[in-house]
Specification:
The protein has 340 residues and is of the alpha/beta class. It has nine helices and twelve strands.
């Protein structure tokens, strides 16, 4: 589809809806590219397996967290492998089965006759057949629920998987290694979340000091007696930032909890130093949180230890945007009020 045809199509598409399952606008999904694909079971039913293991064991250890698949989970993997075998232009890089979803990294090495979505629809058909054969009672219940929809096109229900799927397109250097680590670490992260559910549950409509937030992390940090705002001008020199960092770390050792949107280079440097030293922080965001949002990277483990609290507005948007100066000033004002 060329740009002119795409513009005409947008005229009839209606208002863009928030979704984690939209395709990348303007991208050719039949071209050479690497993707991270995620599919989730309808209703988040844990049909594919059970995660077991010791969260303290390193990846690769026999006792490290891993998924023990059900017969259906094994069939999902077999169907994925079969799809790769049928399309020589597709190469699997990684696959991670979880109880209610799976992630896969997929490399399309050359131009395909059909776009990725059409190929994945065929994969989902094979999985649905396996679901029917292995779990007939659950399959019939899902099919009946779908049949009851008065208007099929408006249905929000799939049978085995939720309608549609999520994909990410590889765009930057280093992104592939991050994806591979994320997939390998998924079972451990699930067990950690189960050990500390209070730190990984998105809280809505939190009211504090006359302001309303959504939050993720250790809410008790708000009640600590010493909250210190970190606000640094972009004009600070490296020497001034280093002095600010040393001053702040001294306050942290006295029990301070740092509060900042962490936007300017100075703010990022100070907050990173405190984070690396294991001190608690409240981080203000310019966007809210999706229902299943969770921190990434080292922030995930820090959150499990109660070291972090993320606060954002009550709404969430999937649109990527650059934070404006007025939004930065607004976040700094919120930080000031929290620390009063």
């Amino acid at each position: 589809m060329d740009e002119e045809a795409r513009k005409k199509k947008r005229l009839y598409a209606g208002e863009k809806k928030p979704s984690m399952k939209r395709r990348l606008d303007g991208h050719d999904y039949s071209s050479r590219c690497i993707y991270l694909v995620t599919m989730v079971t309808e209703g988040r039913l844990p049909l594919f397996g059970k995660v077991v293991g010791d969260v303290h064991k390193p990846y690769g250890d026999p006792d490290a967290p891993h998924t023990v698949p059900t017969p259906l989970g094994a069939a999902i993997f077999d169907n994925w492998s079969g799809m790769l075998a049928r399309f020589p232009e597709m190469t699997g890089i990684a696959f991670q089965l979880m109880p209610d979803h799976f992630h896969a990294i997929l490399f399309i090495t050359g131009k395909m006759a059909n776009p990725l979505g059409k190929v994945l629809n065929g994969f989902k058909t094979g999985c649905r057949q396996a679901f029917h054969a292995l779990c007939p009672v659950l399959y019939d219940a899902a099919a009946q629920r779908q049949h009851k929809d008065a208007h099929r096109k408006a249905s929000d229900h799939g049978i085995l998987f939720e309608l549609n799927y999520n994909d990410k397109v590889l765009l930057r250097g280093g992104q592939l290694d991050i994806w591979k680590h994320y997939l390998a670490d998924n079972p451990r992260r699930l067990l950690v979340k189960r050990e500390h559910p209070e730190f990984f549950r998105v809280q809505r409509s939190l009211v504090w000091k006359g302001m309303t937030f959504s939050g993720l992390g250790n809410l008790f940090l708000l009640r600590r007696p010493m909250l210190v705002q970190i606000q640094c001008s972009r004009s600070l020199s490296e020497k001034q930032i280093a002095a600010k960092t040393a001053e702040t770390l001294a306050l942290c050792r006295q029990g301070a909890v740092l509060v900042s949107p962490s936007v300017s280079p100075g703010e990022k440097a100070v907050m990173r130093a405190a984070f690396d030293a294991g001190f608690p922080e409240i981080i203000l965001k310019d966007n809210g949180f999706a229902p299943l949002a969770k921190p990434s990277g080292k922030s995930f483990d820090a959150c499990a230890l109660g070291q972090l609290l993320f606060l954002g507005p009550t709404y969430h948007s999937n649109e990527r945007k650059t934070i404006t100066r007025s939004e930065c000033l607004g976040l700094n004002e919120i930080a000031r009020r929290l620390c009063e």
